[in-house]
Amino acid sequence: MTFLEHLNQSDEARMIHDTAARWAGGIADEAVRASNGFSPDRWAEMAQMGWLGILAGEDQGGLGMGAAEAATLAGAMGGAKLPEPFIASAVVAAGALTRLPGAATNTLLADIAAGQVIAAPAGFGLPCDSDAPCPTATADGDALVVTGEVALCEAGPATGVFLLRTGGAETCLVLLDRDAPGLEVTPYRAVDGRHLARLVLTQVRVPAGAILGRGAGAVAALTHAEALAVAALCADTVGTMDRALALTAAYLNEREQFGRKLASFQALRHLTADMMVEVEFARSMADLAAFGADGIEAPGELLDRARARVCRAAKLVGETSIQLHGGMGMTDEMAIGHYFRRLIFLQAMMGQEAGALRRRAATLAEEIELQREVAQ
Amino acid sequence: MTDHPKRGSQSPADHIDLLLDDDLRVFRHGVRAFLSEAVPTETRTRVDNGYVPAKPEIVAFLRKLASRGWVAPGWPREHGGPGWTQLQRFVFNLELARSGAPAVPPFGTSMVGPVIYTFGTDDQKARYLPGILSGEEFWCQGFSEPGAGSDLANLRTRAEDRGDHYLLNGQKIWTSKAQYADRIFLLARTDDGERKQHGISFFVLDMDTPGIEVKPIISIDMNHSLNEVFFTDVKIPRDGLVGERGKGWNYAKFLLGNERTGITNVGRCRNQIERLKRLARARGLASDGAFLTELARVEADLTAMEITEIRLLSAGPGAPSALTGPSILKLQSAQIQQTLQAMIVSALGPMAAARGKEFESAFEDLDGLSPGFFDGAVGEYLFGRAASIYGGTNQIQRDILAKMALDGRA
Ligand SMILES: Cc1cc2nc3c(=O)[nH]c(=O)nc-3n(C[C@H](O)[C@H](O)[C@H](O)COP(=O)(O)OP(=O)(O)OC[C@H]3O[C@@H](n4cnc5c(N)ncnc54)[C@H](O)[C@@H]3O)c2cc1C
User: Fold this and answer.
1) β pairing state of B139-142 and B183-189
2) Residue A356 pLDDT more than 70?
3) C-alpha–C-alpha distance, residues B408 and B410, integer Å
4) Which of B174, B217, B226 maximizes ligand 1 atoms within 8 Å of its Cβ, making it the mutation to test the pocket?
5) How many other β-carbons are positioned within 10 Å of the β-carbon of residue A95?
6) Which CATH topology does A3-118 take?
7) Whether A296 contacts chain B with CB within 8 A
8) Is B247 helix (H, G, I), strand (E, B) or coil?
9) Helix, strand, or coil here: A22?
10) Is the Cβ pair B352, A357 closer than 8 Å?
11) Are A341 and B385 within 8 A, CB to CB?
12) Cα(B373)–Cα(A22) distance, rounded to whole angstroms?
């Protein structure tokens, strides 16, 4: 598929988009607040609509679609600021599993698609930082013994399994049950209220059957999952920003000071226009990321660029939308603050703008060095 | 824990010292020595991490300040202040913030106090000033209303003259710390003037007066510092009126001018730079050229703000810059504070996603920093958005400056 074809969504993709937008648009702000980080009912609805199996093959109980459709769903969920771990379980973990063929993964993908199992990626994807250290595995017969820590994992009380990246002699992807002996799960919360956890592993035994990928196979699955993570996070961010911008525009058109609508003050009009520019640039980068995740051999650098640009947009749009709300923007009662906090969460998951640019800064330095050698 | 700031008294000479004469340098070191004793380590750490201390911690510290007569550094000697020069006050505020002391609540010392000793009666001075100076009585500011934010003169709260008292009805919003204030100063309409600014009067009132109801507002950092305050048939005794009836707008302008210069927070910004250095070491940013350049830039910005503050302060109240200065400082200080907060959050990397009590107890430390460093930094970034909103928003400050620059008038 070319990028232009990618932009002209298939009918199927458009249908998913419309359905998701309608569904998410019907979820009231109060309902999201009341769910305290996770709603089993919403999760069941997502499963019913097939969304939790968006990436799984049809024989694995899924819809067999790609990054673009997954990103579309993530965007809709951003717009409704849903706290459920859709990206974690249905996109990143499931995405890695689709590249790890085997009977165990087929069953797991089907369970994830059905909403019966929630899987959390640990040590990759969320946050996008697979260069970070991860728990170390040592061989014990055909099993592995894993020790180490994952400081931040998007997992809550409903999370059943962890898909863990391990280092050591070779990179592996292993499946851990939540109650695996030696695994300590300490829950905490994200800035936007969703569930996170710290994992501490002390001599956790992983039987051969739970080692889902090793070496090159595991690395390829991880790379794919990371690309999906970037695509979904970018789309979620765009959905979140779209809504933040809409709420801000509505507020400016409603609130009056000095006997005029705030929307009539040029300073505020210009700030709103700046936000709009950011959202459109971010939308382009989100499209690029989704295309890259499915259609480009080694999209790494483009994905870095996408998440960096989307992070910058998120910061500006989040901060400006609060500013334009004045004191009201500072309250937990107004929805705008929740969108702002979600944008903070998403930037952190994307590694922050500066983090996303670091790799490129290093290769740029090399390129410049190389040019000097050529010139000499 | 490794993220304790070093005690201030050992800090080496800095560029501020270069600007001070010997007397001021000695003064500065005296203040520093006192503060390093007066601020408990636990308070210092919490404040350094970006948390606002609880009232008892603040009271305890104010008591120590009061023992030296330093609660209200800006007040002249005749009203119980230390009678310091502008530069002494600058140095004192700098050291105060750098020491990790709880911020001195501005409502009594910088806001209502000067209004009372400038425009109040002898009775009012005798009744209200001692409680402020001793740090025992807390005040809150009842200016903003739901319909009167940037357009403050649009306020609707009414105080009707009933002979021996004024009858107050209406609502205030965004009233910081009203939940533990003993008294409130407020603006209310007593008469209908030709212009909205006319007919507004300035009152002081005890918070336990019947008919006052305080409702909390939880802010985006999930804390409670803001409130709504409702007045239903509240009787303000006649001597609750400050200055002349109908002249409240002038007193409010006088007060807001003080508020805007009082909030540059240079000392806190200096601490934030130290925090960024610690964070950079912990997170391996010491060789990140972009990060270092940004840090160097914000240091230069901060120096420019410090020098501007000193320059404007020394120009005195009659100088032309007295009109533009407060807005310039307010804009720049909001900008610098917010830049520093955002830089810290960015440097936290992915862990900027985490917040709350459970997070704080989930880790002993992260890269050698306490989880409180992380949680506090995100909270401060969130609440820090208010720096460009309260005390006149950035847009309003720019309007003030543009009027001076383009229309040649204030
Ligand atoms: C944390 C915090 C603490 C506070 N504490 C107190 C307190 O203790 N006591 C108290 O009385 N008040 C307090 N305030 C209130 C504060 O002074 C007001 O929030 C502020 O004046 C802005 O008013 P508003 O919130 O109604 O916003 P609005 O005035 O509604 O402003 C909304 C947006 O419109 C913009 N805007 C408004 N007018 C114009 C214009 N003419 N041109 C261009 N842009 C414009 C503003 O800049 C802002 O971006 C506090 C506020 C905050 C956030």
Assistant:
1) parallel
2) yes
3) 7
4) B174
5) 29
6) Butyryl-Coa Dehydrogenase, subunit A; domain 1 (1.10.540)
7) no
8) strand
9) helix
10) no
11) no
12) 41
DSSP A262: G
Residue nearest to atom 42 of ligand 1 (CA): A265
> Domains of chain A: which residue ranges?
3-118, 136-214, 217-369
Q: Does domain A136-214 have CATH number 3.90.1150.10?
A: no
Mean pLDDT of B35-40: 95
Report the CATH number of the A217-369 domain. 1.20.140.10
**C-alpha to C-alpha distances, A271 to A258, A337, B117, B160, B378, nearest whole angstrom:** 19, 18, 42, 41, 24
A309: closest CA of chain B, how far (Å): 14
| Residue that has been written with the tokens 């499209």 in this structure | A287
| Residues with Cβ within 8 Å of residue A261, at least 6 apart in sequence | A252, A253, A254, A255
- Give residue-wise pLDDT tens across range A21-46: 999 999 999 999 999 999 999 999 99
pLDDT value of residue A335: 97
| Ligand 1 atom with minimal separation from the B219 CA | 1
pLDDT at A332 over 80: yes
Distances (CA, A) of A71 to A112, A218, A221: 18, 23, 18
Q: What is the per-residue pLDDT across B3-30, written as a single tens digit (0 to 9) for each?
A: 444 444 445 567 888 888 899 999 999 9
Residues B169-174 have a mean pLDDT of: 98
pTM of the model: 0.96
Give dist(CA B347, CA B298) in Å, integer. Answer: 15
Please provide the distance, in angstroms rounded to a whole number, between the alpha carbons at the two ends of chain B.
51
How many residues does the structure list for chain B? 410
**Structural domains present in chain B:** 15-104 (no CATH), 138-257 (2.40.110.10), 266-407 (1.20.140.10)
Q: d(Cα A145, Cα A136) in Å, to the nearest integer?
A: 8
